[in-house]
From TrEMBL:
SMART domains: Pumilio (SM00025). Residues 27-39, 608-621 have a biased composition (Basic residues). Keywords: Repeat, RNA-binding. GO terms for molecular function: mRNA binding. PANTHER family: PUMILIO HOMOLOG 3 (PTHR13389). GO terms for biological process: regulation of translation. InterPro entries: ARM-like (IPR011989), ARM-type_fold (IPR016024), CPL_dom (IPR012959), PUM-HD (IPR033133), PUM3 (IPR040059), Pumilio_RNA-bd_rpt (IPR001313). It comes from the Eukaryota. Residues 16-26 have a biased composition (Polar residues). GO terms for cellular component: nucleolus. This is PUM-HD domain-containing protein. Transmembrane segments: none annotated. It holds the Pfam family CPL.
Length: 621
């Protein structure tokens, strides 16, 4: 054992090798990288700046103000006079961003003047352009700094707009600078001369320029087209300044370049981010060829519901439906998204939405002036270039509606869907149009069942108004299918008309509509039988206009008056007026004036002329 341990101790341990032998390939790579970086300009300052930046980013203004002040003083000492060069280095631009973030007012003023000298070059740099964005963000409310930034950008707008990276800086500047500077910068899109001559605020828009210099219209048009095409190549379609320029181009120039339409076609979805972009896209759709429209449809594929409910995007999609002859293309790529099985949520979201519901109105009642606003009619329904479409609007809409018909009918066969539609302002209008177009006995039955299962619908203004219109469809169209709804409703609520439908003043309007329906004579008999209960409800209700109209209608003929006279000849009725807090007594009498006073608003006697006006008035609520 001793010999073994002794031999072990006598073994020579390996001597440490030289530093070059112990370096791994990774260490060698780092050493070479550091050696290369050492030859860069301002290497020592950047190395120290990185160390300080690493400390700064962990501090907060509230708790570490003194430490931040110390670090900023050192950074300013290191980089003053070198900020532009340092910002262009990919590994040092974050240091300059931190200096902008934590700098004091005096330090900001020094950095602003220094960085503006290389602002355009930094805007084109993948890393340094973040310094420009940081600078613009901090000087958002400083008008003095904005004036300096404007002078720096002046003459460089087109170059920045057509650069893949710098366009982002220009977009931020156009969004956050003062409006007067934005208008002056926009003029450079119309020609090089506007970047050279003195600022003329009287020509701050393309409309003003064309009005004063109409002889230069062709030159301006060519220059704008050149800028647009270059911006499309650099994928700048999604910027607001591009979309505003495109809208001005389509608005003020009658002949739109085919190259512009073709270039933008594949980027249709990006144009929907602003209203100007959506309006410009509608113009391009109207002037485009069948191939251009096909590419636009492909661009919007998968975004049908989100586009239709978008505040501006719905205009472009409706325009495509209005002018595209290839209805099969529209069905497969756009409408198929809302006709998939078990897709009631998307249909419901469209029907209940202010914008989304316009899809159904465009196909079901395109001529309704009350549905579409004037600007929507100008943009969507008017065709800029009829030669690009061969089918008539009627045929095109009929083909699309035929595709949607089974889905819409199935959608209206579900009671839970019907209740949601009835209580919605826009959904109720959609339901009315679907019922008037495709309503049948089955749909009427489902509607009545849904109404019967949800008696609270008669407390809802939208639901009551819609039910009245569903009843009155018969008088407008003389359709037996439509009139069956009224008869089915009366039959379902037999012996419950007053207790269910007449439970509210709004429901009384529904009963009035049923009485006027010639298929529902039994309704009037039941209401005459329960007239005493209606009188009580009228007196107790806070808003009784519906009851007043219903009671006036019930007592129009002499026979009804004879039936109700004994009720009114009973003892005194004391009624509390609804508008004035006073009580009045109506003595029993058989003359017409006393009888009619029972049904006046609040129990207050009406003059004879007022009673006539009340009878002739069509009540709305």
């Amino acid at each position: 054992e001793n010999m073994t341990s002794k031999n072990t101790d006598n073994k020579k341990r390996p001597e440490p090798s030289s530093s070059s032998d112990t370096q791994t390939p990774a260490n060698k790579k780092r050493a070479l990288k550091r050696e290369r970086q050492a030859h860069r300009k301002h290497f020592d300052e950047v190395l120290r700046g990185k160390y300080i930046w690493n400390k700064l980013r962990t501090l907060t203004r509230k708790n570490d103000a003194d430490e931040i002040k110390t670090h900023m003083a050192e950074l300013m000492q290191l980089f003053t006079g070198k900020l532009g060069e340092v910002a262009l280095q990919h590994d040092a631009s974050r240091i300059v961003q931190a200096m902008i973030k934590y700098g004091s007012e005096d330090q900001d003023a020094i950095m602003l003047d220094e960085l503006l000298s290389s602002f355009v070059a930094m805007s084109k740099s993948t890393y340094a352009h973040f310094v420009c964005l940081k600078l613009l963000a901090k000087r958002e409310n400083d008008l003095t700094a904005q004036a300096k930034i404007y002078k720096t950008l002046k003459g460089n707008v087109v170059r920045l707009a057509t650069h893949a990276v710098a366009s982002r800086v220009l977009e931020y500047a156009m969004t956050n600078l003062d409006k007067k500077y934005v208008k002056l910068l926009q003029r450079e899109f119309y020609g090089n001369e506007f970047s050279i001559f003195d600022d003329d605020v009287t020509m701050s828009s393309l409309e003003d320029i064309l009005a004063k210099k109409s002889e230069k219209k062709d030159n301006i048009k060519r220059h704008v087209e050149k800028v647009l095409l270059k911006a499309v190549e650099k994928e700048g379609v999604h910027y607001a300044f591009f979309q505003s320029l495109l809208w001005e181009y389509t608005r003020f120039f009658d002949e739109i370049s085919k190259d512009v339409i073709s270039g933008v076609a594949d980027h249709a979805i990006h144009l929907l981010s602003t209203r100007n972009g959506a309006l410009a896209l509608c113009k391009l759709i109207g002037h485009g060829s069948a191939k251009d429209r096909k590419r636009m449809v492909k661009s919007l594929k998968g975004y049908t519901v989100s586009t239709l409910t978008h505040s501006h995007g719905y205009l472009a999609l409706l325009k495509l439906l209005q002018v595209t002859d290839d209805t099969v293309l529209l069905q497969k790529n756009l409408l198929a998204e809302i006709t998939n099985a078990d897709n009631d949520e998307d249909l419901m979201s469209l029907a209940l939405d202010n914008k989304g519901s316009k899809l159904f109105f465009l196909l079901l009642c395109p001529d309704s002036q009350s549905i579409f606003y004037e600007d929507e009619i100008d943009v969507v329904l008017k065709h800029e270039n009829p030669d690009t479409s061969k089918k008539s609007d009627t045929i095109r809409r009929a083909e699309l509606l035929q595709f949607l018909q089974p889905t819409l009918i199935e959608f209206c066969q579900k009671e839970e869907n019907l209740v949601k539609l009835l209580t919605s302002h826009f959904g109720s209008k959609v339901l009315l149009e679907i019922f008037s177009k495709f309503g049948d006995d089955s749909m009427s039955t489902k509607l009545v069942s849904a109404i019967f299962a949800s008696s609270e619908l008669f407390e809802d203004s939208n639901a009551c108004r819609t039910i009245q219109k569903l009843i009155n469809i018969k008088h407008e169209s003389n359709d037996n299918t439509s009139s069956s709804f009224a008869s089915k409703l009366a039959e379902k609520f037999n012996d419950r008309l007053v207790s269910n439908i007449g439970a509210s003043s709004r429901g009384a309007f529904v009963l009035t509509a049923l009485i006027k329906c010639h298929d529902c004579d039994a309704v009037k008999s039941e209401l005459l039988r329960d007239q005493e209960l209606l009188l009580k409800k009228s007196k107790d209700a806070k808003y009784a206009k519906g009851y007043d109209v219903l009671l006036d209608l019930l007592n129009e003929d002499d026979e009804a008056k004879d039936k109700v006279a004994p009720l009114k000849e009973k003892a005194t009725v004391v009624a509390t007026p609804r508008r004035k807090t006073r009580s009045m007594s109506i003595e029993s009498s058989t003359d017409d004036e006393s009888v009619s006073s029972l049904y006046s608003a609040g129990g207050t006697p009406l003059r004879r002329s007022a009673r006539k006006a009340t009878k002739n008035k069509s009540y709305k609520y």
